[in-house]
Amino acid sequence: MLIIKKIMGAIKPFSLILVLIIENTITMKKLLSILCCAVVLLSVSSCTKKYITPNPNETIYADVATSQWSTYSDGKSYDVPINVPQLDGGSAQYGGVIVSVSYDGGTTYEQLPEVYNDLSFSYTYNAGNVTIYAQTSAGTLPAAAPDPIKVKIILVASN
Question: What CA–CA distance (Å, rounded) separates 154 from 100?
Answer without folding.
Answer: 8
